[in-house]
Amino acid sequence: MAVPVSLVRLCRLPGRTVFSLTSTRGRAVGLSARSCYMSTSTGNNLQFRLDERTAHSSLDLFKKDTGVIYRMLGLDPTHVQDNPERFRDWAVVFGDKKISSGRHYWEVTVRKSQEFRLGVAEAQMSRDDCVGTNSSSWVFGYAQRKWFAMTNNKVAPVTLVGKPDRVGILLDYEAGLLGLVDVETPRIIHALRAQFKAPLCPAFGLWDGELLTHSGLEEPEGL
């Protein structure tokens, strides 16, 4: 179960509002972690690229749209093609595939980043929100040298992760599971549970450094 927290605004940067996270209950409650999940759904080696149409102006895509880099100054928003799919206030980008069934797995390499979010969001999620702050997005994030899980603006700490260079994301649509995967073990470190009711897209938030996505992968055995 995620813990409600108060978000205290500290400062504003391009595509970013920096918050201090404070538990409103005075203690943290972790999400349950399980070593094995059973599901009858099967994956089809989902392959996606990042969708430039959704990318905030502070984000540049590279390596054939499989990677994203944050630039402090970014582009003048007036120089970016205006469309309703683009995030205008938050440094967020979606993957270009919609997922409405099945079990899927991808990995993300983190380079020189101290603040990012990885997960999924409903394809029609409001572009006025940041991923993790509403009931239509589910993410694992890293900030202030700590991992956390977040949905609907509720945060739960994720422990025993450290800061690996590469992590996996496991999505089982029918089972309502989003898992953060240790790619070395492999095992599910933490999981978010939900009832997915709309098409989802891979979702990424980035406020420094780079992220490189790896899709079209087989799910590791034992998850």
Secondary structure topology:
Layout: E1 3-13, E2 16-23, E3 59-62, E4 67-70, E5 92-94, E6 103-111, E7 116-122, E8 137-143, E9 146-151, E10 154-158, E11 166-172, E12 177-182, E13 187-193, E14 200-206, E15 210-214
Antiparallel strand pairs: 1-2, 1-10, 3-4, 4-15, 5-14, 6-11, 6-15, 7-8, 7-14, 8-9, 9-10, 11-12, 12-13
Folded structure, characterized:
0% of the residues lie in helices and 43% in strands. The protein is mainly β and 223 residues long. The strands form 2 sheets. An 8-stranded antiparallel sheet has the order 2-1-10-9-8-7-14-5, with no helix packed on it. A 7-stranded antiparallel sheet has the order 3-4-15-6-11-12-13, with no helix packed on it. A hairpin with a 4-residue loop joins strand 12 and strand 13 (187-193). The chain is globular. Residues 1-13 and 17-43 have low confidence and may be disordered.
Question: Main traits of this protein?
Answer:
mainly beta, 7-stranded antiparallel sheet, disordered N terminus
Taking all Cα atoms into account, the compactness measure Rg is: 16 Å
Secondary-structure element series: EEEEEEEEEEEEEEE
Helix content: under 10%
Mean pLDDT: 83
Major beta sheet, specifics? 8 strands, antiparallel
Shape label: globular
Distance between the termini: 21 Å
Percent of residues in beta strands? 35-45%
Q: Tell me the total number of β-strands.
A: 15
Number of helices: 0
Strand order of the largest sheet: 2-1-10-9-8-7-14-5
Structural class estimated from helices and strands: mainly beta
Unreliably modeled segments: 1-13, 17-43
